[in-house]
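Per your request, structure below.
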C-alpha cells in the first residue's frame, strides 16, 4: 500500500520515526530516547545519538507496518522549536530521505503537532489546550486561524522542573514518571494527607506560570527533613493546580467547553484527573490522548505533515530549522 507519510521527530532527547497511512490513520512510532547517566542532556550528545541510531530506527519503523521505502509518498519533520543540533539532524535526515525517494518534504511546528494528534485521537473539536512537556508549558486556544498562546511559563517548563528536582534527589531522567510513583506511594500510605508543613509557593501570575521557585522550595523541604514521597506529592499538587487554574481561566475567557492535554507531562494520571474534575465542574469535558502520543513521537509529525500537505510543501531552500518557532507562528489552514 503506498501513500504513507513518514514523520521524523528530533526536537530534544528523542529520535522517533512515525507513520500515517494514505487516509491519515496513525500508527505507533519507532522511538529511541537518550537517557544520560548523570547530569542534564547536552544538545550535541543528543544529536550524535540521533545520528547513530537513525538508520536502524527508520528501518524498524517501516518493518513494523510491513512497508518498504517505496510506500512512502511524503516526508515530514519537526522544523522547531527545539535544540538546534538535534533539529538539524532531523532536518538533514528528512532532506536526504525525501530527495532519495523523490517525494515532497514538509517541515512542521512540533507544538502544533502535539495539538493535532490530540484532537485526532480524542475526537474533540475546538478545545483549550494544556500543553505540558519538558521544554514547554502553554495554555493555547484557536482564535482567528492561529493557535494563540494565552498563558505560558515565564521560566522553565513544568517537565523540566520535575526532571531537575528529581535529578537533585539522584533520580535519573526522566524524573516525572518517578515523581508520579512516589506521590502515589505517599497517598497509599496517607489516604487523608494534609498540606501542613508541605506548602509550596503557588506560581500563577495572571495567565502565566512559573516553576523554578517551586522547585527550589521543594528542595528546601527535603533539606529540612521532609520525606521524598511527601514532597513529590506536594510538588505535583501545587504544580498541577497552577496549570489547571490557568486552563480554567482560559476556558472561561474563550467560552470553550473542551480541554485537551498534550506533551509528556500529560502522561500523569493525577494531572488527568484534576483536569477532568475541573472540566466537569464547568459542565465541560477534558481529554487526553494515549500516552504514546503525549510524549514526543514521530507519528504526530507525520499526521501534521499529512494535514498540511494539502496546502503547502517545504522547498529545500526553506527547509532550515527554527529553534524558537512559536506555536502561534504557524497559520492554521485546516479545520
Ligand atoms: P517539548 O519539545 O515539547 O518540550 P520534550 O522534549 O520535553 O517536549 P516530551 O516527551 O513531550 O518531550 O516530554 C518529556 C517530559 O515529560 C519529561 O520532562 C518527563 O519527565 C515528563 N513526563 C513523562 N511522563 C510523566 C509523568 N507520568 N508524570 C509527569 N511527567 C512526566
Ligand atoms: Fe514535545
Amino acid at each position: 500500500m503506498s501513500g504513507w507519510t513518514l514523520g521524523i521527530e528530533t526536537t530534544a532527547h528523542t529520535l522517533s520515526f512515525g507513520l500515517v497511512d494514505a487516509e491519515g490513520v496513525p500508527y505507533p512510532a519507532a522511538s529511541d530516547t537518550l537517557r544520560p547517566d548523570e547530569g542534564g542532556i547536552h544538545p550535541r550528545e543528543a544529536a550524535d545519538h540521533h545520528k547513530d541510531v537513525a538508520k536502524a530506527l527508520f528501518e524498524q519503523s517501516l518493518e513494523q507496518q510491513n512497508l518498504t521505502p517505496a510506500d512512502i509518498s511524503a516526508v515530514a519533520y519537526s522544523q522547531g522549536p527545539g535544540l538546534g543540533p538535534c533539529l538539524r539532524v532531523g532536518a538533514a535526515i528528512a532532506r536526504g530521505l525525501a530527495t532519495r525517494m523523490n517525494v515532497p518534504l514538509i517541515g512542521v511546528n512540533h507544538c502544533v503537532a502535539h495539538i493535532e494528534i490530540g484532537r485526532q485521537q480524542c475526537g474533540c473539536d475546538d478545545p483549550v489546550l494544556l500543553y505540558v512537556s519538558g521544554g514547554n508549558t502553554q495554555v493555547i486556544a484557536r482564535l482567528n486561524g492561529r493557535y494563540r498562546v494565552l498563558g505560558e511559563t515565564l521560566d522553565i517548563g513544568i517537565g523540566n522542573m520535575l526532571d531537575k528536582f528529581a535529578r537533585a534527589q539522584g533520580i535519573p531522567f526522566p524524573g516525572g514518571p518517578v515523581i508520579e510513583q512516589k506521590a502515589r506511594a505517599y497517598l497509599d500510605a496517607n489516604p487523608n494527607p494534609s498540606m501542613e508543613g508541605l506548602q509550596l509557593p503557588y506560581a500563577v501570575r495572571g495567565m502565566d506560570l512559573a516553576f523554578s521557585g517551586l522547585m527550589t522550595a521543594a528542595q528546601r523541604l527535603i533539606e529540612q527533613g521532609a520525606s521524598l514521597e511527601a514532597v513529590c506529592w506536594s510538588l505535583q499538587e501545587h504544580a498541577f493546580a497552577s496549570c489547571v487554574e490557568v486552563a480554567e481561566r482560559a476556558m472561561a475567557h474563550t467560552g470553550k467547553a473542551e480541554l485537551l492535554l498534550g506533551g509528556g507531562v500529560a502522561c500523569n494520571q493525577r494531572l488527568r484527573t484534576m483536569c477532568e474534575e475541573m472540566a466537569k465542574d464547568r459542565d465541560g469535558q477534558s481529554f487526553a490522548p494515549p500516552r504514546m502520543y503525549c510524549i514526543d513521537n514521530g507519528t504526530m509529525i507525520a499526521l501534521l505533515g499529512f494535514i498540511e500537505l494539502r496546502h503547502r510543501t517545504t522547498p529545500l531552500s526553506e527547509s532550515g530549522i527554527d529553534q524558537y518557532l512559536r506555536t502561534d507562528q504557524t497559520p492554521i489552514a485546516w479545520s
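The longest helix spans residues 228-254.

Regards,
D.
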